[in-house]
Amino acid sequence: MAAFAEETEAKNQLGHISEGDASIEERERQNRELKEGLHPLKHKFVFWYTRRTPGTRTQTQTSYEDNIKKIIDFSTVEAFWVCYCHLAHPSSLPSPTDLHLFKDGIRPLWEDNANRSGGKWIIRFKKPISGRFWEDLVLALVGNQLDYGENICGAVLSVRFNEDILSVWNRNSSDHQAVMGLRDSIKRHLQLPNSYIMEYKPHNASLRDHSSYRNTWLRG
């Protein structure tokens, strides 16, 4: 925890949180937390939880929204570790389940204004190892360590019967440089073996075929 806090504080002091890329509300929140002796994150985040109905492939937008439950929000290193240490490990979650980590103000829905023009990178894992990669991804996202961070909306862990799936959502699927740069950054931070294939799918394609992970458009 100390090392994570020191790294976050160092980034802040180097201007990682600047006048140009943080809203007035965010800066006020960060200044308030610094005065309280805490270590503010660049963004406030929310954990969400979805328990899907087994055997149901398609859901209406209304029914899906009704199933999304907010767990907790946090905006400091200290608050993150308090809530993260109490979350269930991926191996103990029932199938099918989705655990979402998104920036505050962005709902984990394809139709959300921040998501509707974007898409997601998808990585499939065998169950025994998915928990470690999910934790590494969460730390990278919360610590603002991924390239093109302003283009990132959030991440999802999807627990399924035969596999677990990690996905990272971004704002703009048509920005090829940002999409491919995010892919490379994910690979570096997760230290993915060369045998792992990443797939990309725009959200508008998911809206058309009513599927999160089938019929992906790009592999790399």
From TrEMBL:
GO biological process: regulation of translation; translational initiation
Keyword Calcium in record: no
Keyword annotations from UniProtKB, A to Z: Initiation factor, Protein biosynthesis, RNA-binding, Translation regulation
Pfam families found in the cross-reference section: IF4E
Entry GO terms, CC: eukaryotic translation initiation factor 4F complex
Record has Protein biosynthesis as a keyword: yes
Classification via InterPro entries: TIF_eIF4e-like, TIF_eIF_4E, TIF_eIF_4E_CS
SUPFAM superfamilies linked: eIF4e-like (SSF55418)
GO MF: RNA 7-methylguanosine cap binding; translation initiation factor activity
Annotated region (Disordered), positions in chain: 1-30
PANTHER family named in the record: EUKARYOTIC TRANSLATION INITIATION FACTOR 4E HOMOLOGOUS PROTEIN, ISOFORM B (PTHR11960:SF18), EUKARYOTIC TRANSLATION INITIATION FACTOR 4E RELATED (PTHR11960)
Family: Belongs to the eukaryotic initiation factor 4E family.
Subunit field text: EIF4F is a multi-subunit complex, the composition of which varies with external and internal environmental conditions. It is composed of at least EIF4A, EIF4E and EIF4G. EIF4E is also known to interact with other partners. In higher plants two isoforms of EIF4F have been identified, named isoform EIF4F and isoform EIF(iso)4F. Isoform EIF4F has subunits p220 and p26, whereas isoform EIF(iso)4F has subunits p82 and p28.
Stated role: Recognizes and binds the 7-methylguanosine-containing mRNA cap during an early step in the initiation of protein synthesis and facilitates ribosome binding by inducing the unwinding of the mRNAs secondary structures.
Protein name: Eukaryotic translation initiation factor NCBP
Organism whose genome encodes this protein: Zostera marina
Lineage: Eukaryota, Viridiplantae, Streptophyta, Embryophyta, Tracheophyta
